[in-house]
Amino acid sequence: MDLKMIIKRFSYVLLCLTLFILGSCTHNDNTIGDRAAKKWEDFVMKDLVGQWNPELIEIKPLVGQPVFSTTYPVVANCSEDILELNRDLSGSFSHFSLDCDQDVIPFTWSHILLRLSFTLENNTTYTPILVSRSPSILELGVPVKSVMPYIKEFYPEIDQLEQDVLDLLFVNIIFNKKQQ
What we know:
Distance between the termini: 75 Å
Radius of gyration: 26 Å
Helix content: 25-40%
């Protein structure tokens, strides 16, 4: 056997060995990364996934007492409104009108640090602050100014507040987890 043939075979074996080692390292790294991502996802989702009934609406600064507070309005003889967050990051908000017609608003959602993001089918995105969460309570907050037309229906006296006060206020909606 000549030297060229030996070098060629040796190079081939070395190339195969290198690819095998790199391939096995990459696989292990992905497995570890996948496990870490799964653990993080489980941690984030454990208190968020499920069906939530809105219970209370508060207008307040991020820290401090409510300026206005009321129970979430429920239409008599209708089912309760439900916010549903699914593990596959899909969700919906089921709302009942005064004549008990159900309107279902589908969305996709995500969680980044202390914010949830809801993207509707028309690509409108809402990003409330995740004020608090537990296995049974979820509290979301949005700046008052971003939902002012809706808030005026419930609290017409909000128009009497000064602009610098309004800048500090959030609408917090407190949800209770629906028992399955």
